[in-house]
Amino acid sequence: MAGVIFDHVKKQFGPTTIVADFHLEIPDGKFTVLVGGSGCGKSTTLRMLAGLETVSSGTIRIEDRDVTHSAPGARDVAMVFQDYALYPHLTARGNIELGLRLRKIASAEIERRVQWAAEILGLGKLLDRKPAAMSGGQRQRVAMGRAIVREPKVFLFDEPLSNLDAKLRGQMRVEIGRLHRKLGTTTLYVTHDQIEAMTLAQLLVVLDAGKIQQVGTPMELYRKPVNRFVAGFIGTPTMNFIDGDIEGDAFVTKALAIPLSPARRPTRDVSGKVTIGLRPDELRLATDGEPATLRGKVVVAERLGGQTHLHVESHGEMIVAVVPADRDIAPDEPVGLVADPTRIHLFGGDGVSLLS
Amino acid sequence: MKRALFYLVLGLAAITFLYPFLWMIATTFKPPSEAGTLSLLPDAPTLDNYRAMFARAPVGRAMINSLLVATTVTASVLVLGSLPAYALARLDFPGRRFVHGVTLAYLLVPSQLTLIPLYSLIVRLGWVDSYRALIVPFLFNAPGVLMLHKFFLQIPRSLVDAARLDGMSEVRIVFGVFWPLARPALATVGIVTFMGTWNEVLWPLLVVRDQSTMTMPQLLTVFTLGGGAGTLGIQLAAATVLIVPVIVAYAFLQRHFIESMAGGVKG
Lengths: 356, 267
Hints:
The structure holds 2 protein chains of 2 kinds.
Chain A: E1 2-13, E2 16-27, E3 31-35, H1 42-50, E4 57-62, E5 65-66, E6 77-80, H2 92-102, H3 107-121, H4 136-149, E7 154-158, H5 166-183, E8 186-191, H6 194-200, E9 203-208, E10 211-216, H7 218-223, H8 228-233, E11 240-247, E12 250-252, E13 257-259, E14 274-278, E15 283-285, E16 294-303, E17 307-314, E18 317-324, E19 334-339, E20 345-348
Parallel strand pairs in A: 3-8, 3-9, 6-7, 7-8
Antiparallel strand pairs in A: 1-2, 1-4, 4-5, 9-10, 11-12, 11-14, 12-13, 14-20, 15-19, 16-17, 16-19, 17-18
Chain B: H1 2-28, H2 48-56, H3 59-90, H4 96-106, H5 111-125, H6 131-135, H7 142-152, H8 157-165, H9 170-181, H10 183-199, H11 202-207, H12 216-225, H13 232-262
Helix pairs in contact in B: 1-13, 2-13, 3-7, 3-10, 4-7, 7-10, 10-13, 12-13
């Protein structure tokens, strides 16, 4: 059974299309992440599922029930917001209980669920505090408590970690993943952060300009991006792109030629320009005497401790490579980079992958 | 030295402001022979002025009338004003900007302008000499809506979203979520409305002639200008009784009042 179905959902504000023909089935229990840049329509899509935005056309179903026009409170979904959205005048307990009280759930049951949520999320001492007396991370845990006690069919997360500092964001990311494994509730999670997207998603949906670009597991999207947008969006540092042409079985520019292995040749006819994509972590430094794919000069070497990000200027292009930190490399040093020929990506002039 | 001068100036200003007020209260305790003096301490304190005032005019009744009118109007302005204020701040509906514009434009209409039409309306409805005439025209007011609207705009949208997902109705969001957060704004609108209604003289003079329906300021005006009050001491005793409730209300609400002038929602 599908947890959630977006059936050709569209959202327009006047003449502007925010979400164009969004069609997606989220299997029951799956942690699904919508990722994209700002203004790509991801939050609008989430809010349509919550009932906080109207749908211009199409239908939304939750566990086979059409909820397209249901009130937010009648959809059996719970949401965690970027700014937590806790009621400032209520304690943590008051915030967590409110939705249950409004649904006329018996006091004993409410108490049981509050204790359960407090235990799972480690809220113990916070229950009698008001939001103003809590840190950001604590507020977000209370907000998650408010969501889980509802025992909803779907959890919605709208950039829940964006207001937290980097360290706390990492901790909360792990906690959200753990919570999902424990509860197994269908989840839709919106973020612009591709690390959150990669680490949390069982199903990853990349959106751009209101359109779905690709749906799949994080590793599918990483290994086989269907277009240049997805290739550039997934993975850090960003994939390197070089424009050129196909000649025979090689990719060529004025300055270089990269032979393509049989598995990495275009599967359709190519006319005009193509773009080759090389992931920074699939480039390595050439050893002495080894023929390099690219040669250039180091411009910046960013030492991150365990690894170094090399920014190399090669024939007028800036190429980033992730290399082990064990070798000292200084700016202006000439280096050769070797690309793994089985991991090369190739895109046509329209940005669509030539490999699938 | 500079500081001393500063306090001297402030002190003088305070005295200028407070003296007439204290003199008024002092005079109510003076016998008629002392009434004209500028001293703040009566030589022979007396309650005669108050006794005479209560004997000559139905002050108790007028006080109850005033309280009834002012509290009803204040409560209504807060309750009925919150709903459009919320709608203008947080709901999307066609014509919202227009309604907001009209509400703003209403501020430009002087109340004197509507006085005569309103009066003739009250006469046709047969409401002269009734509480309805004093209350109904003021149940709702544009400045109140606009002040609440302005404050409601500071309450994050996500709280409305969260409340809707919790299953609250829009009306419940107004009174269950916005009201607890908007206490300073409610206090300000409440005080302003209460004081305005309490001090209103012109309108009651137009629509009420029966002494038993008169409000305090109206009775006081009729009483002093009509010559029924007699001495200065008695007139000022009536004025003192008039301002007491306003001072009490302000004392209770001033913290919120200052807060709403100074800041927004915390939390």
